# Entry
Amino acid sequence: MKIVLADAEATLNLGITFGQSLDAGSVILLSGDLGAGKTTLVQGIGKGLGIAEPIVSPTFTIINEYTQGRLPLYHLDLYRLEPQEVAALNLETYWEGFEVTPGIVAIEWAEKMPYKPDSYLIVDLSYGNEGDRQAQITSCNYPLSAVIASIAPNFQDAEF
# Structure
């Protein structure tokens, strides 16, 4: 599925839609150029979950946990890490809910992950031709029909 995002507000709104519709255990792997809107999308997810706390990029802290919304949001940023450092983080504890309450896991710079969960969404954000941005959403063993049903009413120009 491809969505044209006219501006940062549209990116935020896509995130809000995700936050309102995704279930506990959902994993979103975010990729795209620096400044393409990954953190903005996660801020929208937080708003959609009802998280009032400001959501900031965890570039230096690696992981930010927000637990006061409809579901917890685990926001990870792997930008500054090497793949062997990422492996040592034991990220599966977040999507398998071993030591944390199951929630939504959003991982920026996910291409650095040496392993992935069994089920996830990939959101690749890129710059469009006319100053806009595009979100390419791909599913890996994730029920995409539920995502399409929640996004379609809000983004009429989406290509499915």
Remarks:
- The radius of gyration is 14 Å.
- The beta strands are 2-5, 27-32, 63-66, 73-77, 104-108, 120-127, 133-140.
